[in-house]
């Protein structure tokens, strides 16, 4: 039984995520940029499922 990881992220989800973070970084004059990477990792992990084949 093989297990694989599948990330269910659509184009609209990723576009809204990036747009939101871009606006946040602009508003905070770059102070939010170190937190972007952690938020991106959390975003991808929350949309990842284990598929058993």
Q: What does the model show?
A:
Strands 1-2 form a two-stranded antiparallel sheet. The mean pLDDT is 94. The chain is elongated and about 50 Å long. With 53 residues, the chain is of the alpha+beta class. Helix content is 58%, strand content 19%. The chain has two helices and two strands; from the N terminus they run E-H-H-E.
Q: Approximately what portion of the residues adopt beta-strand conformation?
A: 15-25%
The count of β-strands is: 2
Q: Tell me the distance between the termini.
A: 6 Å
Rg from Cα:
14 Å
Instruction: Return the average pLDDT rounded to an integer.
Output: 94
**Number of helical regions:** 2
Q: Helix coverage percent of residues?
A: 55-70%
N-to-C order of helices and strands? EHHE
Question: Any idea what the shape is?
Answer: elongated
Strand order of the largest sheet: 1-2
Find the structural class using helix and strand composition.
alpha+beta
The biggest sheet, with number of strands, parallel, antiparallel or mixed sense and barrel status, is:
2 strands, antiparallel
Stretches where pLDDT is under 50 for at least 5 consecutive residues are: none
């Amino acid at each position: 039984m093989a297990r694989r990881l599948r990330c269910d992220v659509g184009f609209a989800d990723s576009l809204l995520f990036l747009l939101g973070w871009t606006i946040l970084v602009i508003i905070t004059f770059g102070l939010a940029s170190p937190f972007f990477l952690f938020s991106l990792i959390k975003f991808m992990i929350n949309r990842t499922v284990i598929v058993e084949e």
